[in-house]
Specification:
- The protein is mostly beta strands.
- The chain has a single domain, classed as CD59.
- It contains one helix and 13 strands, in the order H-E-E-E-E-E-E-E-E-E-E-E-E-E.
- Strands 2, 4, 5, 6, 7, 8, 9, 10, 11, 12 and 13 form an eleven-stranded antiparallel sheet that branches.
- Strand 12 and strand 13 form a beta hairpin.
- It is globular and about 60 Å long.
- The protein starts with 5 loop residues before the first helix and ends in a 17-residue tail after the last strand.
- Bound molecules: 2-acetamido-2-deoxy-beta-D-glucopyranose (2 copies).
- One 2-acetamido-2-deoxy-beta-D-glucopyranose binds next to loops.
- It is found in: Secreted.
- One of its GO terms (molecular function) is phospholipase inhibitor activity.
- Belongs to the CNF-like-inhibitor family.
């Protein structure tokens, strides 16, 4: 008796898959506006974008707060469903809630707005924000708030609709931001970021302040 070869089975399976017609493109609602939701047309996604996403973001810049929503097509592997909190500067806090799905028009309707918890939690991170550069020194320190337990260093390119430029930023983030991978195209409310660097490490407690007068003893 000749046993059936598992390799032949695999070969048959892969031939079957390569001869299947390509999956029809996904359609997603696409829109962008201020407020806790937005509505727009259903758009056929580019072939490689196999998911729909809704992002509701609350950004707090100094005293200015704005709540905005965007809906678009995205690669499923780049999509994170859930809550992300970031503080990239003392005056620059942002929280977002996102939802990813993979059915035609599945991002119609609305999702809950993100919670903003701006209570400092005792952790800190180097902070900086640079446009037109893909590194930044992080000489300033920012205090982390709410669920932000990690320090991020993200850089890459940012697409602002008409042009693409470099960016780099460091600051505090919730652990959920560590989901971002190098190569990912991450939609925010107004821009699309492509990450070349996506470092994420646990945040530290600040060192104890050295009291004045105690520092000169060694010199
Ligand atoms: C954010 O938090 C502040 C107080 O910490 C509160 O007054 C404000 O209503 C909150 N904003 C939203 C949109 O939840
Ligand atoms: C806000 O964040 C602080 C610090 O992490 C935490 O102790 C507190 O429970 C949070 N509040 C809410 C309402 O989640």
């Amino acid at each position: 008796m000749i046993p059936r070869s598992p390799t032949l089975g695999l070969l048959a399976l892969s031939l079957l898959y390569t001869h299947l017609p390509p999956a029809p493109a996904l359609s997603c609602e696409t829109c962008r506006s201020s407020g806790p939701t937005c509505s727009g047309r259903l758009k056929v996604c580019e072939a490689e974008k196999d998911a729909c996403v809704t992002v509701v973001g609350l950004s707090v810049t100094g005293k200015k707060k704005s709540l905005d929503t965007s809906k678009s097509c995205i690669k499923f592997k780049d999509c994170y469903s859930g809550f992300i909190s970031t503080t990239l500067g003392q005056q620059d806090h942002m929280v977002s809630n996102s939802h990813c799905c993979q059915e035609d028009g599945c991002n119609q309707g609305s999702i809950p707005s993100p919670e903003n918890n701006s209570t400092v939690n005792g952790l800190h991170c180097p902070s900086c924000m640079a446009a037109f550069h893909d590194t930044c020194a992080g000489e300033k320190v920012v205090q982390c708030v709410g669920p932000e337990t990690h320090c991020i260093y993200f850089s890459g390119t940012v697409q602002t609709g008409f042009f693409t430029t470099k960016f780099a930023t460091r600051g505090c983030a919730s652990k959920s931001a560590c989901h971002a991978q190098v190569g990912a195209e991450v939609p925010s409310i107004t821009y699309t970021y492509e990450l070349r660097r996506a470092d994420c490490v646990p945040a530290q407690k600040p060192p104890r302040r050295v009291r004045k007068g105690a520092r000169s003893s060694a010199s």
